[in-house]
Write a structure and sequence with these properties.
- InterPro entries: GntR_C, TF_FadR/GntR_C, Tscrpt_reg_HTH_GntR, WH-like_DNA-bd_sf, WH_DNA-bd_sf.
- The chain has 240 residues and is mainly alpha-helical.
- It has two domains: 74 residues, Winged helix-like DNA-binding domain superfamily/Winged helix DNA-binding domain (Arc Repressor Mutant, subunit A, Orthogonal Bundle); 151 residues, GntR ligand-binding domain-like (Four Helix Bundle (Hemerythrin (Met), subunit A), Up-down Bundle).
- Helices cover 73% and strands 3% of the residues.
- It is elongated.
Length: 240
């Protein structure tokens, strides 16, 4: 289990056992991280993740609070959970995106110009370890969109843009819960740009395939881990 996942579970346990009640302010970051035996960076990412699904409310200059946890509030974030693991639709979207974008990248390798290469390098240079998750995902969207547009097929670009927009939540969740997400994404993007600059269509397509498949694999594994406890609870003990 990733360190951030562990932090999320521990905060959730504090809420479930009543140690943190609705509306209550969390202890300062340093105190809470020491109490749970976690690094402050892991604690910070866990708080971000729980803020996304409306469990925590981060108030700038005031502190972090447990929300009211009212059903209405939590239902607003329910689509987030549904997007991730209620069925296979999000995985199917990633599979379609992987197939189509790999081909789009191969097409782009034959047509891409130096200005687009320079733009792609500028995009990768604008992101580093200090970039937050929202910034990373915004970079990822712009990066992939620029490559697909370089393929020169407007219909394909529109189709992939639509598919990509439906996977944003999953990409944010991956960035929040998977360690080294920024470094991994940047390394893969830099390799892809290098292949495009060499006009190596086959290599570029392979790198795009692996890049997208990595998110697919993480999402499938994460959803499986989340569902296992529920499935285990559903199994009734055998009668003696």
């Amino acid at each position: 289990m990733a360190v951030t996942d562990s932090a999320i579970l521990r905060i959730r346990e504090m809420i479930l056992n009543g140690e943190l009640a609705p509306g209550m302010r969390l202890p300062p970051e340093k105190e809470l991280s020491e109490r749970l035996g976690l690094s402050r960076s892991s604690m910070r990412e866990a708080v971000k993740a729980l803020e996304v699904i409306r469990v925590l409310d981060v108030r700038q200059g005031d502190g972090t609070y447990v929300t009211s946890l009212e059903p209405r509030l939590l239902l607003e974030a329910l689509s987030f959970v549904i997007d991730l693991h209620s069925d296979d639709s999000i995985l199917e979207m990633f599979a379609v995106r992987r197939i189509l974008e790999s081909e789009a990248v191969a097409m782009a390798a034959a047509r891409i110009d130096e200005d687009t290469i320079a733009h792609l390098r500028s995009l990768t240079a604008s992101v580093d370890d200090s970039t937050d998750i929202e910034g990373l995902v915004a970079h990822d969207l712009e990066f992939h969109q620029a490559i697909v547009q370089a393929a020169g097929n407007g219909y394909l670009a529109t189709l992939l843009e639509s598919l990509s927009s439906h996977t944003v939540r999953a990409r944010i969740w991956r960035g929040l819960t998977q360690e080294n997400a920024v470094a991994r994404t940047l390394a893969e993007h830099e390799s892809l740009v290098a292949a495009l600059e060499r006009r190596d269509a086959r290599l570029a397509a392979s790198l795009a395939h692996v890049h997208i498949a990595g998110v697919e694999q993480w999402l499938a594994s994460w959803a499986e881990d989340e569902l296992e406890p529920a499935e285990a609870d559903a199994v009734e003990p055998a009668e003696e």
